[in-house]
Amino acid sequence: MTQKFRLTALDLGPEDRLEPEIEEYFAKCEAKLGFVPNVFRAYAFDNGKLKAFMLMSDDLMLGDSGLSKAEREMIAVAVSAVNHCHYCLTSHGAALRHRAHDPELGELVAQNYRAANLDRRQKAMLDFATKLTESPDKIEEADRATLRRAGFSDRDIWDIAAVASFYNMSNRMAAATDMKPNPEYHHMAREATRGPVKGSRPGGSIRASTPAAAPASPARRGRRGE
Amino acid sequence: MTQKFRLTALDLGPEDRLEPEIEEYFAKCEAKLGFVPNVFRAYAFDNGKLKAFMLMSDDLMLGDSGLSKAEREMIAVAVSAVNHCHYCLTSHGAALRHRAHDPELGELVAQNYRAANLDRRQKAMLDFATKLTESPDKIEEADRATLRRAGFSDRDIWDIAAVASFYNMSNRMAAATDMKPNPEYHHMAREATRGPVKGSRPGGSIRASTPAAAPASPARRGRRGE
Amino acid sequence: MTQKFRLTALDLGPEDRLEPEIEEYFAKCEAKLGFVPNVFRAYAFDNGKLKAFMLMSDDLMLGDSGLSKAEREMIAVAVSAVNHCHYCLTSHGAALRHRAHDPELGELVAQNYRAANLDRRQKAMLDFATKLTESPDKIEEADRATLRRAGFSDRDIWDIAAVASFYNMSNRMAAATDMKPNPEYHHMAREATRGPVKGSRPGGSIRASTPAAAPASPARRGRRGE
Amino acid sequence: MTQKFRLTALDLGPEDRLEPEIEEYFAKCEAKLGFVPNVFRAYAFDNGKLKAFMLMSDDLMLGDSGLSKAEREMIAVAVSAVNHCHYCLTSHGAALRHRAHDPELGELVAQNYRAANLDRRQKAMLDFATKLTESPDKIEEADRATLRRAGFSDRDIWDIAAVASFYNMSNRMAAATDMKPNPEYHHMAREATRGPVKGSRPGGSIRASTPAAAPASPARRGRRGE
Amino acid sequence: MTQKFRLTALDLGPEDRLEPEIEEYFAKCEAKLGFVPNVFRAYAFDNGKLKAFMLMSDDLMLGDSGLSKAEREMIAVAVSAVNHCHYCLTSHGAALRHRAHDPELGELVAQNYRAANLDRRQKAMLDFATKLTESPDKIEEADRATLRRAGFSDRDIWDIAAVASFYNMSNRMAAATDMKPNPEYHHMAREATRGPVKGSRPGGSIRASTPAAAPASPARRGRRGE
Amino acid sequence: MTQKFRLTALDLGPEDRLEPEIEEYFAKCEAKLGFVPNVFRAYAFDNGKLKAFMLMSDDLMLGDSGLSKAEREMIAVAVSAVNHCHYCLTSHGAALRHRAHDPELGELVAQNYRAANLDRRQKAMLDFATKLTESPDKIEEADRATLRRAGFSDRDIWDIAAVASFYNMSNRMAAATDMKPNPEYHHMAREATRGPVKGSRPGGSIRASTPAAAPASPARRGRRGE
Q1: Burial of D142 (0-12, 13-18, 19+ CB in 10 A)
Q2: In this predicted structure, what is the pLDDT of residue A13?
Q3: How far apart are CA F49 and CA E55, in angstroms?
Q4: Is residue D18 less than 8 Å (CB to CB) from chain C?
């Protein structure tokens, strides 16, 4: 209970007894990241809600896509910057620093992607995500056409939209509940590891990293037959 | 393919072969509503994405909650009104007319809930959902305190936040893809059936309806052990 | 007095004794529509104010114009959607459903005209009306030029501006006074009558209807020598 | 024609042959002000439109009201400041300087009424007019209650709303057509004439002036039996 | 102290004993303008703050630049119009009327520069200043490119940015402290003196005036070796 | 020249030959920070502009004040967050992490200070700075009164306003010129050094640090007789 209070401003009662596959997933998080992301703990008062959230989150951020995982984190961070979301800027800021192997570029997207001199593809991607965040009612065919001209397929457009839309949901859950991120994120991936040559910054595109950042959720594994 | 084009502005390739439990769910939709909601068909190019969406949607709108199902539809519609979402105003406008047994009050929330003379509880609920939609970065403890004073528990606040946040996602998916609602919604529940006495309108609170509006999704049934 | 309270949130004292030509006009409304629109009753505490309002309203919506009557209703509804005006979305939503002989398309403009796949002319018309509503200070010659390229004459541009401006006034009167629409509007023109073939929707342009929707106001008749 | 072009950016064709009572009204303007306000000339391509506009304008600004004429000009100017309307800030700025007998206070409202240290009544009046201009959809009973507490009757509230709403229309007509004000306004009423003692500024309330600023329009005279 | 209260809403304690070069500067203001601008008196509670403000202000508005002094006043006024700043619209409105030798055009920029039919160069300059004021985070290379195409050098772009940015600071200082302008400004430069032929208005560009409007600040003289 | 291009998007020509006192100041920056902040190098094309900027910046951030240096950095960062300013979030983010001896709390203000559970004083301070940034025209006496009730003197209010206003200027200069921060900032003060006990976070107030973060500017030293 006391701990709950620290996760969010809401007292949601005792945690559900976690289902075995979620227990297993949490154990993998501990092993891999050193902690269970607080957003999962916040949802853990109800196994059903937690599983739905994990399933959607994992599909969007770790599933197959024409967008690299780093690009999906760029969208998450750019949307969270518009919404000034403390939780998501902290957690996905860390993820982007990690995925892009470029902590400074990661930071930059959290501040204002327009200062990043991105290539046309990624610029178009974040312009769309930002407009979709700020004024969804004004999206028109011309906006989709701009994405197509920048090299995105219709399936990619779906993914850009889906990631941007998902963080418009998550940002609001974090704001509504005053969700607190794990303090460990603060120190993660602050140093460049490998990737684009230092001198090429700022600007340049962000590539997908090879290794997965997190274990697949139980739900996800389920539907993939893993 | 041709049909896909009519669902959204995106050509997402052939539909996945639907998994048996989704086929079954779609069949129940046909039986109950006379059609499969287009949002499900739009997601049907990928079983995994569709299942995650259905699981979350069903949990929020049909699962246990201190909010009545009509109240959850009120939130969906009020959020969609801010975002001027054609798809959701059409489909959840119909759902709200049905749930509230009061087509005029349903319409009213789609236009501007402030004109509805709602009771204090529902007014506070929609004020919170609207602020969360328009300026999530400005939600503060005072906003949660207002909900508590209006009679909501912390668990209810989670649900208000979760429904409002979910439609901030869905509205954007519909806008980004130009998703078209099933034309059948237009005519649904235009006539008052039962519920509040006619003369009491406008104003008055909306109560939960007894009968479920839709079959539970396969994922949902799965986790409930049905 | 009691009845007054139901029209608006203001107690404006007893109605003026209506002038004979207004009495006659109201009688025609009753005969034709089955009721006197509440906006007229709300203004009826002062014959002078009522007459000025009726005169301007009738001139704009029923007078000669290069815009069809349905197009003028489209502008009224699109402006009212930006301003989330319950009264005007209800009354002019009904009028647009009637004028366009296409209830679904009518509904669509009330939600978000950008989802309607309108032809270039009507799209440009509503883009202008919306910009004029949202940021009148930013209208520039380029905006008028866009209308001209879409086929509008300068006289048409005046009419687009005048209708959009008028509903920016009316929406605010309704909001300021919490004006309630006649409940009859809710059910009007919900079924397609004639007009564009069903299958052609969504999209397609809206044509002017032949029959007038309302009797001309006394003032209007006066200056036309009727 | 050439002259028309100077009034607005639109070429509206030859002026209607003005009806006798309008000719007479224009003659009185010339006699009293030295010119016919350009807004009237802009509408003069159609007698009907001109008469409707004059009738409404005169009723609101010169008719009986619990608001002084200076107060009504304050509302006109405060609304026009929000909308950055060149035409109305010029013409009604001059009118307010004249009505308030205090050119500096007049200027101040055109810039930002919040800097004027108005008394509670006038501050509440302009707060309401500004909110109605900026976000009409958010007006609630609490806003009307604030006006009542500041001493306004329900009839006064109607008038505040009606004047603010009317200038939301007029500002947009001027913006849409690029209407140019008569240059004479620039120099009018730049010097204090009589009224509040100089030293009392800034702050202090604005009183109604005794003399009428303009002749009543023909339509208005008509309905008053003059 | 009493006098302090009239300058701003803050009681900042007794004035610093002014340093001799500031005393001298103030004396020149008195001689030239007939008064010391209140913004300088407001800052005079601290010699250091005053000197920094004067130094920056004088450099921007009176120093060498590819922008004429009138153009810099246009930027000051256009920015202050967006921010509805009473102090700066009054003082720089007067300065612009003076610099441009065209009181009506001066007034116009204070209302809405878009109504001024400026030449392409000055239009682009104010468009940039306005966007920088309203949404600095959205400035992109394309905005600078537009200025270059309109004939501005990179050094000019710095100056446009610097003046616009400075008034975004000054407007906020005036708003935060409720700073009152000297009443003398109201009457300054209301009559055209010399410059563009009367008939050429509206439109046309504003040229730099030859005579300096104010003595250089002590700090400025210092660094120029005067 | 090439190097210039990297500081900003503008080619401002060769640097001025720096005046001796500026050379000395730059040398101290190198000694103390390891680099000269890029904003100073960006202004260094003109000694006069650079000196004015340094003088004002140093006075505000390092001069005597009732606000601690950490509090002034909080304002700088909170304002820069609203404006999404890459340069200032990077440089003042680092300064705040340093001043507050709490890197996580520093980060938090850069994301959204409302998530920081600040004490009433600092919350009121940032609420004012944010409102002044977003809508300076709406600041009223009530806003100053709130600061006074939170314990601020009128002189403190001046300082809050001055720092917030200054960063509204600096943010816009950085945006207009695409100013790039020194990469060293990224790694500065990422580890907590001393200060509030770790466990007390989040929340708690930020205290002033004792050691000065930067050498005083030449201008500043000049006026202080150092």
Answers
A1: exposed
A2: 77
A3: 9
A4: no
Q: Report the predicted TM-score, pTM, of the whole model to 2 decimal places.
A: 0.90
For residue B172, give the nearest of A133, F147, A54 by alpha carbon: A133
> In sequence order, what are the residues at sequence separation of 6 or more whose Cβ sits closer than 8 angstroms to the Cβ of residue C223?
D19, D47, D48, D51
Q: Is residue E4 over pLDDT 50?
A: no
C-alpha distances out from residue E70 to B37, D111, E56, E136, E211, Å: 62, 21, 18, 24, 11
> Are residues E88 and D117 in contact, defined by beta-carbon separation less than 8 angstroms?
no
Q: CB of D123 within 8 Å of any CB in chain E? A: no
Q: Cβ(F218)–Cβ(F135) under 8 Å?
A: no
Return all residues near A13 (Cβ < 8 A) that are at least 6 apart: A4, A45, B155
Residue keyed to tokens 């702050």: D203
Report whether pLDDT(F223) > 50.
no
* pLDDT average, residue stretch E5-33: 89
Among A104, A201, A96, CA closest to F86: A104
The answer to whether residues A83 and A133 touch, using CB atoms and an 8 Å cutoff, is yes
Neighbours of chain D (3+ CB pairs under 8 A): B, C, E, F
- Give the residue-averaged pLDDT of F43-55: 95
Q: First vs last Cα of chain D: how many Å apart?
A: 35
Q: Quickly state the pLDDT bin for C1 (edges 50, 70, 90).
A: very low
pLDDT of residue F17: 87
Contact predicate C217/C60, CB 8 Å: no
Q: CA dist F179 to A103, B220, D147, E162, F85, Å?
A: 19, 52, 49, 13, 10
Report the complex ipTM.
0.88
Q: What is the dihedral of CA E150, E155, E161, E164, to 10 degrees?
A: -90
CA angle E36–E37–E38, rounded 5-degree value: 110
Q: What H or E segment, with its residue span, contains residue E125?
A: helix E120-134
Q: Tell me whether A226 touches chain B (CB under 8 Å).
A: no
pLDDT in tens, C78-121: 999 999 999 999 999 999 999 998 888 889 999 999 999 899 99
CA distance D107 to E7: 18
Q: Residue B213's closest CA among B196, B197, B193, B199?
A: B193
Residue A49 clears pLDDT 90, i.e. is over it: yes
Instruction: Say whether D164 and C176 touch across the interface (CB within 8 A).
Output: yes
Q: Percent of chain D, pLDDT > 70?
A: 82
pLDDT at position C216 = 54
Tell which residue, E4, E1, E9, E2, has the closest CA to residue E177.
E9
| Residues C104 and C212 sit within 8 Å (Cβ to Cβ) | no
* CB of C140 less than 8 A from some CB of E: yes
Spatial separation of the C-alpha atoms in residues C180 and C178, rounded to whole Å: 6
Extract the tokens encoding C29: 């409304």
- State pLDDT tens for residues C120-164: 999 999 999 999 999 999 999 999 999 999 999 999 999 999 999
D140-184 pLDDT, tens digit per residue, is 999 999 999 999 999 999 999 999 999 999 999 999 999 999 999
F contact test, residue of B137, B138, B143 with most F CBs within 10 A: B137
Chain E residues whose beta carbon lies within 8 Å of the beta carbon of residue D186 = 103-104, 107
Q: Which two tokens stand for residue C106?
A: 């009518």
Q: What is the pLDDT of residue F42?
A: 95
CA-CA distances (angstroms) from residue A217 to A53, A212, E47?
A: 10, 12, 64
Q: Are E65 and E208 in contact (CB under 8 A)?
A: no
Helix (H/G/I), strand (E/B), else coil: F50: helix
8-state DSSP, F132: H
CB-CB contact of F164 with F75 (8 Å): yes
**Residue A13: left (phi > 0), alpha (psi -120 to 50), or beta?**
left
pLDDT confidence of residue A195: 45
